[in-house]
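Trying the structure run again after the queue cleared.
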Amino acid sequence: MKYKTLKNKLQITILLLPGLLIFGLFTIYPIIKLLVISFFHWDFSSILNQSFAGFDNYKAVLKDGYFQTAFVNTLVYTLVTVPAQMFLGLMAALLIHNVSHFKVGFRVLYYLPVITSWVIASLVFKYIFNTEGLFNYFLKDVVHLADHNIRWLDSRWSGLGVAMILGSWKGIGWNMIVFLAALQTVSLDLYEAASIDGAGSLVRFFKITLPSIKGTILFALVMLTIGGFNVYTSIKMITGGAPSHQTDTILSWMYYKAFSTGDFGYSAALSFITAFVLALLAVVQFRLMKNNN
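Done. Tokens:
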């Protein structure tokens, strides 16, 4: 019996070993290496001979005005796009859940933006909101609300606004799928009992639907917050950080510091500061949701 148990454990270990090796080589080792780099002066001029920096890189990040701008931009982007995606995705899920025909068609239509390439979608939005783009043409020549072309992508908040519109639009379909799956698990008996008691649609929504899918809401909130802090492609393609890095987010600024200036120690420190902030936000979100139960 002991021999058979030992044999089973050995077989399990052998089967898991390739996956564990790949995980360690491509995930654990890079994280440890990045942590080491964050404590050294590591740039193009010192690739072969790095000097220990201690916490200098972390101090440089926190004191950097460009990082502070990028952090505020990322925070605002997250605070705008996450609620927008969740609200619109939930509304779409409720619509599809309650219709009796063409459910598959509606799902496909709402999910199409999710599978659309970020690069292509970003280029389309850049074309639409360009100085000579479709939106300015509509405002100036169709509805005559503007007497000149507006440079939407050349200022901080309007440029970020375009990226926020794109981010919210892209995320509706994912939230719709997640919330639709959660809605299908809510017992119909609860709605029938509430209807018998005279509860209206809004009462059933706030008293039955939302409490029943609270776990899914928390999951979506945490995942979307992480996604908001990881925004990169849309910023890179639409504004490129212009003007003067005023529309940069944390990842686009990190990329610039690493691959344009070669300051890998700074970028490594920035990555761990970002990871710490995300972990802190996740803990706060979990505690808030737990206290509301």
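The chain has a mean pLDDT of 89. Worth checking whether this holds up in the mutant runs.
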